[in-house]
Amino acid sequence: MPLPVIDVPFEARHHCWFCGEPCHLLFEYHAQPHAPHPALAVPACKECRELAKKQPLTSLQECRIAVKDALMRRYSKHLAIGLNWTQEELAEADFTCKTLQCFQRSAWFMYEVAKGRLNFAGWPLQLDGVALTHTQADTRFMFDGVSYSSVFAAIEHYSKAMTLDKGFLSGIVALLGKQRFAYAVRLARLHIASPAACKRQVMRELMADHCASN
């Protein structure tokens, strides 16, 4: 028997609840007794539906976070375009190689599509006009125009895209707070080739400055 489909706003009637891409499929979430909502179906594109099947977790919201993380990992190279270029720099780049010229024509579009899918917020879960409330905290982290499922997901992405020491970057963010994420990334890049002893000294100095300011 088909599961009930969540209420879909008119303007989103042909869009994936996970990423906003056009879609014509449904993802059926078969809730267990401990789930905060009943079994439901949500509109989903083929890619997100397959990702969601692998990580149903304990609620549709948790499943959605897992899908976003999977999309970020799958399209990390596309997202990295926005880390290394601006739209103007790409347009003005003087590429002579045909392969790079092809990249120049499509790169920013690929970045915008990947960013848009990650940033898509979906719409509230509602069934027959009744909101399906839940108590899960919002862990999303917005940085440089991209919405990450959490600050940890942002650390994962930047560490991979820029070949940074993930433990070092994570330690800086933990010490200084996610509001200084840009500074943490700059510091991690500055010490990208530094030995472990040097990084430990940097952390000690940051800790001393933090304690002095408090």
Defining key terms:
two-stranded antiparallel ribbon, flat, 9 helices, two-stranded antiparallel sheet, about 210 residues, mainly alpha
Describe the 3D structure.
The chain has 214 residues and is mostly helical. Helices cover 52% and strands 9% of the residues. The chain has helices at 46-54, 60-74, 76-84, 87-92, 98-119, 151-161, 166-176, 181-190, 196-213; strands at 25-29, 40-44, 126-127, 130-131, 141-143, 146-148. A two-stranded antiparallel ribbon has the order 1-2. It has a two-stranded antiparallel sheet with strand order 3-4. Strands 5-6 form a two-stranded antiparallel sheet. Helix 7 (166-176) packs antiparallel against helix 8 (181-190).
The spatial strand order of the largest sheet comes to 1-2
How many beta-strand elements? 6
Largest pleated sheet: 2 strands, antiparallel
User: What's the overall average pLDDT, rounded?
Assistant: 90
Return the string of H and E elements.
Answer: EEHHHHHEEEEHHHH
Number of helices: 9
Q: Give me the secondary-structure category.
A: mainly alpha
Strand content: 5-15%
Distance between the termini: 60 Å
Which runs of at least 5 residues are low in confidence (pLDDT < 50)? none
Helix content: 40-55%
Radius of gyration: 21 Å
Large-scale geometry: flat
SSE topology:
Blueprint: E1 25-29, E2 40-44, H1 46-54, H2 60-74, H3 76-84, H4 87-92, H5 98-119, E3 126-127, E4 130-131, E5 141-143, E6 146-148, H6 151-161, H7 166-176, H8 181-190, H9 196-213
Antiparallel strand pairs: 1-2, 3-4, 5-6
Helix pairs in contact: 3-5, 3-6, 7-8, 7-9
